[in-house]
Amino acid sequence: MKAKYDFSKGERGKFYNAKAVFDIPNFQEKDTGPKMRLNNKIAIVTGAGRGIGKAVALRFAEEGAKVVVDDVNDANGTETVAAITDAGGEAMFVNADVSNAVDAERLIAETVDAYGTVDILVNNAICSTADVLNNNWDANLAVALQGTSHCSNAAIPVMQQNGGGSIVNIASVNGLIGLQGIHAYSAAKGGVIALTRSMAVAHGKDNIRINCICPGTIQTEVWEPMIERNPQILDEITPWYPLGRIGQPVDIANAALFLASDEASFATGAVFVIDGGLTAGNHQFPI
Asked: Which residue is catalytic, options 5, 16, 185, 241?
């Protein structure tokens, strides 16, 4: 019995004609050179003074975005801006504490004043390593969870006026599985995952895509206090990863770039686990 639609022949043409769906310039024509995936997009990255946030800011700038670097540390924030501008990109620094709703609103307002709109928001800011290790509930919830909500709530009206946008929330594998006893951090990151899904459902109609990334262990400055306590800690963690290494900030930056770009136009409410296989299972479990 013949199927109603022969998909192999593309009878429902618009679903199989890449040029019609995506309006790709020079489709099946001569390559015109490298394409910048975020060309002229306005992107805010919170906690961008170091670590994952800095890597995201640099990667976005490489792909043509104008980047607003947010951090509560002036020296770190201005250093990220300098790295972008020295490489020929465009960036500005805003010192805003995302745990404060007024500061979050100011961050968005200063971005709009400078660049006219907000296309991309990356909610990456987190409290200090000491607050994480000491299970400081107030700090973890205020920065990671409420900060994500504050910045998103301030950016969404701008994105609605702009016809859409992309929000990328940085969660953690700690929000998915039980690891060490950093309960407040794990709870906050689990909340970020739930918040991502809830907001994605609410704002799909606005063409605002909201996704989150759950990194595994990433080698950043946040590990410095733990390395001081145990210089071999990263070597001890590595065997738990099927890929045989821990992550680098650029691993997460590349995932954030995909989610921020038009390439992820059908992704929203998704949890992207970038963890070297950690949460896939215990590959050392004896059988």
From this structure: 185
